[in-house]
């Protein structure tokens, strides 16, 4: 399993281990100091002896290269804090299809909407649906009804709400 840390941090740790061993520290002391196994320190020392400083350099990232750079990912996540209408869409609800379309037009990268849903979920963006409200809803009329009519209706029912018995 790969240790936690950036490639540069892990390389610095390997170089420090080799340096400490060359200064006279035992492999067990270096391992305890760095929080690794004694045999790991031995592997680093042997690699350095065989290939020099170049042998301690980080290895290429395994697997497929990500479709978006870290900067592009930040920009995409920033878009999600804005309204979709600002980006030319008709509704105020982001969909995976809209995000995929925006990524394609801005960065030239094609994501399948199903994959994009998974990608967004891993970054703590889950599907959102707005509260359903009637188009005819009138907040002023509701407030007036609650102030004037509801107390009269409640008084007639003896203080009981419709759900109480």
From TrEMBL:
Region annotated Disordered, chain positions: 145-165
A Pfam family annotated for this UniProt entry: HTH_23
Domain spans labelled Winged helix-turn helix: 92-148
Residues that span the membrane, as ranges: none
Signal peptide: none
SUPFAM superfamilies membership: Homeodomain-like
Superkingdom as given in the UniProt entry: Bacteria
Stated name of the protein: IS630 family transposase
Species, as recorded: Gemmata palustris
């Amino acid at each position: 399993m790969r240790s936690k840390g950036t490639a540069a941090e892990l390389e610095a740790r390997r170089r420090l281990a080799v340096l400490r061993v060359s200064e006279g520290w035992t492999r067990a002391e270096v391992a305890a100091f760095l929080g690794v196994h004694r045999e790991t320190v031995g592997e680093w020392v042997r690699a350095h002896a065989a290939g020099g400083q170049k042998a301690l350099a980080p290895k290429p990232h395994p697997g497929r290269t990500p479709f978006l750079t870290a900067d592009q990912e930040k920009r995409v996540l920033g878009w999600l804090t804005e309204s979709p209408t600002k980006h030319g869409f008709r509704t105020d609800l982001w969909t995976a299809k809209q995000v995929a379309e925006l990524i394609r037009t801005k960065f030239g990268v094609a994501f399948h909407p199903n994959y994009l849903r998974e990608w967004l979920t891993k970054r703590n963006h889950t599907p959102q649906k707005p509260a359903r409200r009637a188009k005819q809803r009138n907040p002023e009329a509701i407030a007036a009804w609650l102030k004037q009519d509801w107390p009269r209706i409640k008084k007639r029912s003896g203080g009981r709400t419709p759900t109480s018995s």
